[in-house]
Amino acid sequence: MALLPRGYVAADSTGSRAIVVVSWISTVLATIAVAARLYARRLQRSGYGWDDWVILAALVPLWAHTATVLVSVYLGGVGHSMHDLGPDNQVVLFKSLTVIQFFFATSLGLVKSSIVLLLMRIFFTKKFKLFGRSTSYILIIDLQEN
User: Fold this and answer.
1) Handedness of CA 129, 133, 138, 142 (dihedral sign)
2) Structure pTM?
């Protein structure tokens, strides 16, 4: 037990295990989907667009989100009753929950922007580009408010 950090909480509750499993599965599936998308673009020799780079950038806060979720489960005690946690665990819990929101909002904003850019790439009419740009501005403003 000397290798475990102070305040370590085992993920032995059903809620804790579910959070860890869902976090890992969703992150790995998203990474595989983005890798497959980039590989398909390379095979087709269609070139990478802004939408590809933005979705690739969205993986960075997603992986950081997953790491923070793991910290909140194993050091903060997510999935356990607050009565079972010590003061050190509660401090880590609330700090990590604050950081999780930042990474989640950033990743989600980048994914939404990538979708808008992909649609602008597919539907390249003047009217749709105007719609796409205005939607992008709304996404940027919304991301700054969060």
Assistant:
1) positive
2) 0.78
